[in-house]
Model the fold of this input.
Amino acid sequence: MKFSIERSTFIHGLQQVLGIVEQRPIIPILSNVLLECAGDGVKITATNLDISVDCKVKAEVEADGKITLPAKKLAAIVRSLPGETVAIELDGSKVYVSAGRSNFQIMGLVANDFPVASEQIPGAETQLSQADMARMLRSVSFAQSNDDNRYILNGVYFCFEPEKLTFAATDGRRLSLASKKISNDAGGTKGVIVPSKTIREVERLLGHGSSISFSFDGHRIVFSISVEDSSGSGLVSDIRVVSKVVEGNYPNFRQIIPRNAENRVKIDRQLMLECIQRVAIVASDQKNLVKLRFEKNILEVSAESQEYGSANEKIPIAYDGKLVEIAFNYVFLCDPLRVLSQDEVFFEFKDELSAGVFKTLEDFLYVAMPLRM
Done:
């Protein structure tokens, strides 16, 4: 194996895969990246057995070959090199790395021992724009559970309905949904639960091109993230993410959505977010409780605690219903307001014991359970 590569291109390629490399894996080779040199570039792969990520970067290849090298050390070396072009050559299990005045000799592990995900794509393929994928994941991923005892909720549910795809996430106290019309229904499959770690990786990798496609079976999901030639990144093929899925039945999230909200008010997203954040400064650290008091054309946001004192702020709204006061964990109110891009948001509610609902004119819905005052 022998090739030369632009230092910035090599760094960029390594950055795509480093996020899943564990510091002290049970199997030592999992702390390595696999370099496969052939044709017009080098394929870089990392895995932790649950997720694998690979990409291909442009390089001048003199001799084909493959080897695995310590991921973090390799990245640190390449970042530190003084020259613009890096030369890599394999001799047995040793890899010689040189650029400018610097020369490194790195010990590798045999590539055949590295666990590589199958190239076969499972199931029917669904395609979205990367902008839509980013928007939808951003709109729901914050609501995932992190409770290991409720592993079914530790991810985002991709729910397929006729000509519609919905992403759902819940931790049992709140629910976030984002939807998009699509032209296929994943071959009749109802849906799949994508683990939270995989969601984070996909969100991080978006932005290199125009589209993303994915397909899945009962055990894994494969994402192909397109790369634009004009991006200047040096990437020459799709970034691929292969992940195990969460096996089990996701709860019927439709049952959580209130059907009889009596009141609906339009709010300014940024204004309400800033108001809640200010008032919440004095909220109790244990309960994070803020109150929303709806009266004629006024929304009053307030909080108080024995430790810090009290605060309140009033926002003008168009409202002509009865007086209603509802308490929420302020984090559950700020999270959706922070991730939405639309400034026009609608809030629906019934009484102090019923859930509050955020909606937008696009396909977004968020449900937050109230706190007892």
In short: The longest strand covers residues 51-58. Residues 354 and 370 are 7 Å apart (CA to CA). The chain has a mean pLDDT of 93. The chain has three domains: 2-113, 126-228+238-254, 257-368.
